Amino acid sequence: MDSNMNGLAKSNGCEISRDGFFESEEEELQGQAEAWKCTFAFAESLAVKCVVLLGIPDMIAREGSRATLSLGEIVAKLPTESPDAACLFRIMRFLVAKGIFRASKSAREGGAFETRYGLTPASKWLVKGRELSMAPMLLMQNDETTLAPWHHFNECVLEGGVAFQKANGAEIWSYASDHPDFNNLFNNAMACNARIVMKGILSKYQGFHSLNSLVDVGGGTGTAVAEIVRAYPFITGINYDLPHVVATASSLSGVQHVGGDMFETVPTGDAIFMKWIMHDWNDEDCIKILKNCRKAIPDTGKVIIVDVVLDADQGDNTDKKRKKAVDPIVGTVFDLVMVAHSSGGKERSEKEWKRILLEGGFSRYNIIEIPALQSVIEAFPR
């Protein structure tokens, strides 16, 4: 036998390693398949970004939620005279295989068949024209600026530091302040998430009834607090964020926009609302924010935090996980988003939340599940 064939065996004409590194041929092939998936995991999100930028989900949706369009009909709606239809076909074929679109065959005149494309539950969330759309979040997370920090993870492990700063020369908040286009992209993404999560909150959380005033700390352009005030018109809403953020906010009924720094002070109110804020910061910073919130509310007040609560045994198929609307593994993905975009932020388990709440002046809390990735953490002073 050729010396190069030592440790190899033939299986269906393929050479399979027999050096003992893999326990079986099945394990070797399954591992190879998973390694290929990892290698090209980026392909799906960037292909989806392409069709969202082209407006293809919107084209189909305008014809109806169950409508279909042929490739030719889609191409005819694109803004250039001679688009590359073959390129688009290959992208659509891939996204059909991934379940982003559905494909069906339809007979044409003369007996020929054509493929027609329709929306799936996933692509229905990518229609930009709808109030509840994840398209702005997808576009922000797949922007070159927000993708670049992920290429610096190995440096963060070896050297420490902030991935976003390594990639872009500044931390994300300073960068957004100096780059209006990115700031707009970021704010649109946060606003789209606010609308989605607020629907879940307002359908399940009953803790707004007793409030006369509510301060949304880190409220962006005010989307979330506006939804709360719309549902509870007796509440006076204050949208509190950095001055450059509230400067872009539109006038909202029942909402006052206030610029400031939550690390210095927080406006007073019956309760403080913080949606997707605490996960941006390390434990020390979160405790500082919570202490400022404690000063801003009466002894009968509360803090309403909307954030991910990681399960302690992430990955186990427990009853608690099965009750979540969104696969809880997405929480660990967002934890990596915090590595990429924040300076010490992270997603937390209940045990971790309990510790920072206690040190921030809140000794009692409830966790309320809502139909979203996040949960509501309702915390009360000592």
Give a verbal description of the structure.
It holds the Pfam family Methyltransf_2. Keywords: Methyltransferase, S-adenosyl-L-methionine, Transferase. GO terms for molecular function: O-methyltransferase activity; protein dimerization activity. The chain has 382 residues and is an alpha/beta fold. The chain folds into 2 domains: 101 residues, Winged helix-like DNA-binding domain superfamily/Winged helix DNA-binding domain (Arc Repressor Mutant, subunit A, Orthogonal Bundle), CATH 1.10.10.10; 247 residues, 3-Layer(aba) Sandwich (Rossmann fold). The strands form 4 sheets. The chain has a 7-stranded mixed β-sheet with strand order 8-7-6-9-10-14-13, sandwiched between helices. A 3-stranded antiparallel β-sheet has the order 3-5-4. Strands 1-2 form a two-stranded antiparallel ribbon. A hairpin with a 5-residue loop joins β13 and β14.
Question: In a few lines, what is going on in this structure?
Answer:
It comes from Pinus radiata. With 382 residues, the protein is an alpha/beta fold.
Highlighted features:
44% helix; globular; alpha/beta; 382 residues; transferase; 2 domains; 3-stranded antiparallel β-sheet; 7-stranded mixed β-sheet; single chain; Rossmann fold; WH-like_DNA-bd_sf; Arc Repressor Mutant, subunit A
